[in-house]
Amino acid sequence: MVMSTARGQRRAFDRDEALETAMTEFWRYGYEATSVAALTQAMGINPPSLYAAFGNKRQLFSEAVARYAGTHGSYGARALAEPTARAAVERLLRLAAAAYTEPGRPPGCLVINGATNCTPASEDVKAELREWRDGTKRALERKIDADVASGLLPPGTDAMALATFYAAVVQGMCTQACDGVGRAELDRTADVALAAWPG
């Protein structure tokens, strides 16, 4: 894609690279605190180029979240590919500990932190991120239910409560990473959480 930058000048515009930059800005500062001016400065484009390529800030955010979920935030999907719920939870916690403290990246998780301090005007943003999180929790609940049915977990195991507990652990690990806690300590948190797995 090529965008005009000034009269008589044309500059190649790498949309994929710009989206990666926007994703990082939203990840670092959250939706509302990231202005169009900050985005265009970081992306190295002007506002008309942003609107032409992405529609508006809200549409850009949704696209950035989808990119995050498919790249840096793909640990949830990779964990859920494990054959059992126990293996999925362990992998989820280990991958989250690594992702939340990855050098050169903002700490924590865009899907957890992207709308923590939004005003009522951005309720749709909060709802979008909540749906991403709920999707992972529901998938984990289904895996737990399947393991109860197959005898891998005790009868009567509360799949919803167990999935919610580990979702809460993951969200807490995200907050700890944003507070500067390192990967080794998050791994120890994962150890404690895994000890609560029903046996």
From TrEMBL:
Residues 12-72 form the HTH tetR-type domain. Transmembrane segments: none annotated. The keyword Transferase does not apply. It comes from Actinacidiphila cocklensis. This is Transcriptional regulator. Keywords: DNA-binding, Transcription, Transcription regulation. The keyword Transcription regulation applies. The lineage of its organism: Bacteria, Bacillati, Actinomycetota, Actinomycetes, Kitasatosporales. Pfam families: TetR_C_13, TetR_N. It comes from the Bacteria. Residues 35-54 bind DNA. SUPFAM superfamilies: Homeodomain-like, Tetracyclin repressor-like, C-terminal domain. One of its GO terms (molecular function) is DNA binding.
